[in-house]
Fold these 4 entries.
Entry 1:
Amino acid sequence: MLEQLRSAGDHLHAAWETYIRVCSALQSYQIQRDPLDKNVPSEFSSMLDTQLAFIASYESKIQEIKVTIRRARNYSLGLAPINSLPAEILSGIFQLVSPQRCDLHELSSDKKHYPTYPENLTHVCSLWRRIAISCCSLWCHIDLTSYEPYYNALVERAETHSARAGQLPIELHVVDDVHSHIKRLPPGYDQLDKFISRISARVKTLNLFLENNVWGFLCSVFDTVLLNQHPILTKLIVRTENYPSASIYASTYTSSPPDIEDQDILLDLTEDQIESSFSPLTALHLAGIFPSWSSTAYHGLVDLRLSSPDGRSSVEEAQLISILTSSPGLRIFHFGLLIGSTTDEVMPVYLQDLQVVKIFLNIRSSGYTCPSKVFRLLAPGPRPVCLSLGGSALDSLLFEWELEKFTDRSTVTSFHTCSVLPPMRILLRDHNIEHVIFDNQEKSSWRGFEFHPPYWQLLEMGWPPLQSLHLTRSSISEYDLCRLLEYCPTGIVLYSCHVYRDEGPEFTEFDAQALADAFPTIKNYDHPPYPLDDPTADWDHLD
């Protein structure tokens, strides 16, 4: 077979070269012929039509041959077809490619963002269907909404998922009707309420998304899950985009009642019932809606994420210190709230296992300080820390001072910044930093960037250069890129970036080849090995 393939290939190559030469000569023939001479032999025109049809007929055959050759090559390299893998390997692959993010809150009438995984696996072939259905962990994520076009379909889908998940814990994701502004429960809610009641003892993760001012539906879901809750609920996610900052309270209190605002959410539960349900939590992700700051929900956490969609949510510094102190084993901390009632001096909270810190900066409101003030409250332990910054800092000097003090008492090994550019000296003086990501930087952002100390001083001070510097979704001038090279001579990588020339018309951009010629040590790619919209997404997946 090997000799036959070699011989056939040689003959095809020779014939193809001859054919190309003859066809190329057609152009010379047309040039030499008198254009006014219309006496073209009919046999010649007929032959051209025949050759065009001949070439066209082989296009599909060439594709078939390419598939056959590639398949044979895969076998020759010892690569196995996916269906030949053991069932446990296939099921592992199915779980590996599961969507990392559920966009149910973006569900629209055109079925965009309608969940289809893992159902689509069951439509490939009988083998995949059998393996997918038997893999209980694939079906643990359940989506529900009060959006009427898909309400019934998602309830039926949830019933299927619940059955196929066996007795495994469930991740329940509930979104209100983002298209309605009416405070009412959806038609046929009893069916949904009964379903949630049946699975409530298995809900390990509760993910609620609140839109606008329609909280009646989600309150009912919240009540049902917490009222029937056994000590299995360990992760709670409550998010909103357009709802004003609010607190979650019980309708009846054994202690003195809180000061309740109009936008606050009242659950039809007692204070003890809520606190008892919250006590097993180890992961808490909140955006705009928060349990009382004194709640047991903030105790014993390993993953705490507090953010404010409208930039107005706040917490008193003493309350935040109490929250951090109540979770000494905290590993992941995201923070984007304003801080009120700060003091001149404070003792940072020692967090031995802290590994990920993401701070979302914003302009401070009257009487409150920027979230960057949280730096002085954190004292990480010996573990390597990944630090991410986003937003903008109003008081840059205060921000830089707090950041510098934090890096001094931490082992920051990875640093990411989106929009905010700290002085280069902070990155260079911390010799533990192995990897830096400058994300979403505009061309004008570099004007205020402190390229300090100069490169020649680095050698005198004994500071090593940066080993790895990624620029993603950014624009930069030729001059500023040259300056970055001084601080990271061999480790700069560009992802989806634009580099502009200093000479010539304004906004003249380097093409890929010109960039490679001008900056041979810089690597340039269109797509990074991580989500382009969130380069730090993998940081939150700790072992």
Note: The two ends are 50 Å apart (CA to CA).
Entry 2:
Amino acid sequence: MDQDPAARAEHDARTPPPRGAHRVLVALSLGIALLGAGLDQLTKAVVQDTMELGQTIDVIGSALQWHYILNSGAAFSIGTSVTWLFTIIMAVVVIYVVTLLRKVRSVWWAIALGGLLAGATGNLIDRLFRDPSFGMGHVVDFIAVPHFAIFNVADSFVVCSMIGICVLLFRGIGLDGLPTQEKESPPAEEAGDA
């Protein structure tokens, strides 16, 4: 017996994806994270191998430059004396995002969390393994645009992913891909009895 398309679509939206689909979404997130963190580390290695610390190269005039610096703090070099704190925060973010992946049932959330994981991992690698010491490493930053902090590929992944996460939250889309109001409101039969 055929259902009408609207009823079938609503049933499909409420039915969780098969277990294999969840594995694909986790693989998508981890793939984005690996590629993003790899791209971040590759670009940082190229900058370190081809530029002198403090050197600036015009890419698109003064609108986009490569300006090689080492950053022991956060954006705009805030908190340069508490590098260890940023290392701990990044490690917590990485662990938290990995635990969230167990709940992901949405392609958009998988992409956003994969990007966030890429950025946090890329900068965490710097904090853990770059000079001056383990856990106190300075992050390689090199992308310079006017009137903004100098940043790197990992930072770009974090910012773009956080924008995506904000859009998903603003639209009320949960990790499972369903609108959050559907989960919060009681079923129609129970609401009518009250």
Note: The chain is about 60% helix and 10% strand.
Entry 3:
Amino acid sequence: MKNLTATLVFTSVLAFSPSLYAGSCGGGDHTHSAQEKAMSIFNKADNNSDGFINAGEFNAAKLSKYGSTFTNLDLNKDKQISKEEYMEVFNRHHNKKSAGA
């Protein structure tokens, strides 16, 4: 239950943050989807660009501010978070939200 709560808090922050839903680039008039913003957060945290976030990168990027722990996002428990794991948690939350709307 604690893991579920932390995961829901994490994805709720992403869901309700206006800056994560839409943002303009360089004064342009286009916006970015929530998924694009989530991937941007992932890519910034992935300091060595290996496609994974390790515990050190997670802590350095202060990703816990989004309400989840490294362990909650590391779905296969291999001590790293892949883009797929990160987006699975994100999409799982958004699909539940859409189904309940």
Note: The chain has one domain: 2-16+34-100.
Entry 4:
Amino acid sequence: MSRAAGGDAEAAKLAVWKEALYEKCRDAAPENDMFSQDDLLRLDVIPNKDLMLLARVVQSLSDDKLFITMREASGQVLWKWRDAQEAHKYKQCTTDEQVLVYSLVDDAGGDGIWSQTLQKRLNMHDSVLKNALKQLQTKGLIAPFKNVEHPNKKMYIKASIRPSDRATGGPWYTDQNFDDAFIEELQRVVFDFIKRQSSYHSTHAGSSSSARAQAPKKGVVQGGLERGKKRDAREMSKPPSKVSKTAAGTTPRKEALLPLPAGYTGYPSVRDIARLLSSSGITNNTILSEEDVRKLIDVLVWDNLIEPVRVAGKVGYRVARVARQSTEPWAGREDPAGPEPYTSPYTEAPCGRCPVFDICEDGGPVGPSNCEYFKTWLGLSDP
């Protein structure tokens, strides 16, 4: 057998051992787990546990970027395997500088890495670093991006991955800008949902006395000289079959949302609210996790608009403070005010909500004659 033929046979055997050892490592442990020399021998790939052959196989895998060589503080050498697609990207790095830069960008993951951090860690000249970054961008291996935590720093990330929520701000940022309008609208939708689920719709008449005034007295003849005198049942007039809506003393029915009774177990949980937002389409294809929804709910709790309630071993949420809620939704309104409570003459008039009501009097610093809000409410102020 010629020397060339023998070399080809050895190369073929080496390729078989390389593939076998690589597959064994993939099957034995996750990508970031380390293998020592003894660990590799225990995989029973290298014949007769030949250390020289193992060294050749490991070196060949390292040259193909499929193995990463690590060294512990004690001096022991360890290896971990790299995905074949990632190894191909490393093989696209044509210079040592490109390999070093891409390696640090790779290690930074979704958080990315600052260009000055690269320069300090690699102790690389500025022009050399810039050239390596430019070449890696041209090859589509890395990309610059804006980190919301460091908006003025030039950051780099692997082009094949998405920035982390920490770097982009998560769903609350649009194009690296805090989207407060999106957050406010989501909070309004969440509040309206909790309000509907933690109350019942009531259309009860405004006054019970008016109902009593409309009903005739039991057993009294209507009209006649003996009006008001008890008579025989056969002589009694029949009560009217229908009460007129225009009768004196009637009040219009006032719709309101009233609280549910104690022991109610159907208050919406974080998961229920997350499902609502996911199915409503209001998030504009932005995926919100339950943790993201919990942050929205926490803001409403801190604003004293809703409160948590533990029922049947789970935590739900209901509207806080106001016993009677308006049926008008908060979402979709253009004004920046909070949700509309149940209104009455006391809440519609400025006096019912005036913070200096106790010192309001004629001749005082605050009074009906000089109250600008009172004049506006009465329509007496200039437009």
Note: The CA atoms of residues 99 and 127 lie 16 Å apart.
